[in-house]
Amino acid sequence: DIVMTQSPDSLAVSLGERATLNCKSSQSVLYSTNNENYLAWYQQKPGQPPKLLIKWASTRESGVPDRFRGSGSGTDFTLTISSLQAEDVAAYYCQQYYNFPFTFGPGTKVDLK
Amino acid sequence: QLQLQESGPGLVKPSETLSLICSVSGGSVTSSRYYWGWIRQPPGKGLEWIGSIYYSGSTFYNPSLESRVTISLDTSKNQFSLKLNSVTAADTAVYYCARPVAGSLNGGGGYFDYWGQGALVTVSS
Question: Which chain A residues are within 8 Å of B112, Cβ to Cβ?
Answer without folding.
Answer: 40, 42, 50, 52, 95
